[in-house]
Write a structure and sequence with these properties.
CATH architecture of the largest domain: 3-Layer(aba) Sandwich
Largest sheet: 7 strands, mixed
Structural class: alpha/beta
Helix content: 25-40%
CATH superfamily of the largest domain: Type I PLP-dependent aspartate aminotransferase-like (Major domain)
Number of strands: 12
Number of domains: 2
Strand order of the largest sheet: 2-8-7-6-5-3-4
Bound molecules: pyridoxal-5'-phosphate
Shape: globular
Length: 359
């Protein structure tokens, strides 16, 4: 056998690995998974039926152009077909955006801490991450992000609401920021949790993109629509960007099951958004209970809460796991806990209360 091994791109050295939320432990007395910001509700019967019907022809390739889904999205959001692009989850679309805009020597700006895929997909593209710390209130520091723009900047992520803190940026500050970004730098408004927002001051990215050719909106079917396992997300952007996304897409990346389920979900939107409403009510209940116990909880507009625990992070995660709730720790920083079924939320709140008393 040769001593040599295939030469790999140096940019891959040290790429952080994406840590998926831990699954709930098997065989325990109770086991709830609040570690991946998933939708706790099972698929709607009508959506499931349509996906199952599509499964009957999975010997065939899917419709590469996602025609049915694209038409549905175009009607639903009032955007031309040429401004739409789909991908394998919004993280897939985010990766396509990087492939389309950035490479070695270029810079990508995003807040930190934010969605953990940003550093990974940036490094894989060969570009350099420029991480701008969140403010003391766990919010994007848009002034500092604008100050960080250089001639090398190609793309900026604004995660609104931010994962993992749940915090948002408001219309006036976002517009002021966008006005400062040069037209040849792409701003990606990652709105994976858009449907959970109840703060009227948070702008809908789709309104902002309309007269701003350098703004791209990322959305997903994984969260509010409950299709995380099927991998389908989409971008809304002006034509050159959307066209570049179609060029960088993995051919046939979005399965027919995913396409059909996404169409069925858009047609069952009232019911799905009703479920989102229940989760939002649960969110308020969890936040109020935690604050009542004495925790500092940043205002969240997503389907999760953030507790900055610092050095106590892993102990807290272990206590939750022991109680039967799996959450997402970021060692040395804090924990992100998804809003799930009522019993899971109760168990988490109860564990948090005990932890606070004992620490
Ligand atoms: C901010 C943000 N963007 C994008 C995604 C990716 O979601 P998906 O690829 O399932 O659409 C996530 C998932 O957790 C997220 O938190």
């Amino acid at each position: 056998m040769s001593e040599k091994s295939p030469r790999l791109r140096a940019e891959l050295d040290g790429v952080p690995t994406y840590k998926p939320g831990k699954p709930a432990a098997e065989g325990g007395p109770v086991a709830y998974k609040l570690s991946s910001n998933e939708n706790p509700y099972p698929p709607l019967p009508g959506v499931l039926e349509r996906a199952v019907a599509a499964a009957g022809s999975f010997n065939r390739y899917p419709d590469m152009a996602c025609t049915g889904l694209m038409n549905e999205l175009s009607d639903r959001f009032g955007v031309p077909l040429s401004h739409l692009a789909t991908g394998t989850g919004s993280v897939g679309v985010a990766q396509q955006l990087l492939q389309a805009t950035a490479g070695v020597g270029d810079e990508v700006i995003y807040a930190w801490r934010s969605f953990e895929a940003y550093p990974i997909i940036t490094q894989v593209s060969g570009a350099t991450s420029v991480q701008v710390p969140l403010t003391g209130d766990e919010v994007h520091d848009l002034d500092a992000m604008a100050d960080a723009i250089t001639e090398r900047t190609r793309l900026i992520f604004v995660c609104n609401p931010n994962n993992p803190t749940g915090t948002v940026v408001h219309r006036a500050e976002l517009e002021r920021f966008l006005d400062r970004v040069p037209g040849d730098v792409l701003v990606v408004l990652d709105e994976a949790y858009r449907e959970f927002i109840r703060d009227a001051e948070v702008p809908d990215g789709i309104e902002l993109y309309r007269d701003r050719p350098n703004v791209c909106v990322l959305r997903t079917f994984s969260k509010a629509y409950g299709l995380a396992g099927l991998r389908v997300g989409f971008a809304i952007a002006h034509e050159p960007v959307a066209a570049a996304l179609r060029k960088t897409a993995v051919p046939f990346g979005v399965s027919q099951l995913a396409q059909e389920a996404a169409v069925a979900s858009l047609r069952s939107e009232d019911e799905l958004l009703g479920r989102v409403g229940s989760l939002v009510a649960e969110r308020a209940r969890v936040v109020d209970s935690l604050r009542g116990q004495g925790w500092t909880v940043p205002e969240t507009q997503a389907n999760f809460v953030w507790l900055r625990l610092g050095e106590r992070t892993l102990d807290f995660a272990a206590a939750c796991e022991q109680a039967g709730v799996v959450i997402r720790p970021f060692a040395g920083e804090g924990v992100r806990v998804s809003i799930g079924e009522t019993e899971a939320n109760d168990l988490f709140v109860q564990t948090a209360g005990t932890f606070l008393k004992e620490s």
